[in-house]
Design brief:
The longest helix is centred in the last third of the chain and has 55 residues. The protein has one domain. It has 159 residues and is mainly alpha-helical. The chain has 4 helices and no strands.
């Protein structure tokens, strides 16, 4: 996750994405908290859905699935409402934010673009790693098959 990068590297990325140099501590804190909420909401939606529905798919009990989905929806509503509340609260605090060179809409747009770009990058990188892992496993299985087959052929020849 790019939010775990060293702060100096993260702020270089943010400076470039915003086309603005974050110098003051309160500017950095404000932007980082917005970015963190955007990242959390998108990451939560993607990872939670995948893991939770895989578990649910293991049963054929309709009532259990229905109950699970209803609880899942309610839980997500609470979390997303909290994130929306935090975003709105920050938006209201923006009136006193020291970043006067950029409008709130510009900041929002650029942070959303950054999060989208990073998620696409991470998705592609993870996909590439998964393909490489599958290829490595296939290669090992093939080598095992070939070596086992060669040994068996040698045993047949010499007997």
């Amino acid at each position: 996750m790019y939010l775990t990068r060293l702060s100096s590297i993260l702020y270089q990325i943010l400076n470039k994405a915003l086309n603005y140099s974050l110098k003051k501590k309160d500017e950095k804190r404000f932007i980082y908290s917005r970015l963190e909420l955007y990242w959390f909401t998108t990451a939560f939606m993607v990872t939670n859905i995948k893991d939770q529905f895989y578990t649910m798919a293991k049963t054929n009990d309709f009532d259990l699935c229905k109950q699970y989905v209803m609880n899942y929806i309610q839980s997500n509503k609470k979390i997303l409402n909290h994130c929306q509340f935090e975003l709105t609260k920050q938006e209201q605090q923006f009136q006193i934010c020291p970043i006067k060179e950029l409008s709130f809409e510009q900041i929002e747009h650029r942070l959303k673009e950054l999060v989208d770009r990073e998620r696409k990058y991470l998705s592609k990188r993870n996909s590439d790693k998964l393909i490489k892992l599958k290829d490595d496993i296939s290669e090992k299985q093939l080598l095992t098959t070939i070596s086992t087959s060669s040994v068996m052929n040698l045993l047949i020849i010499y007997h």
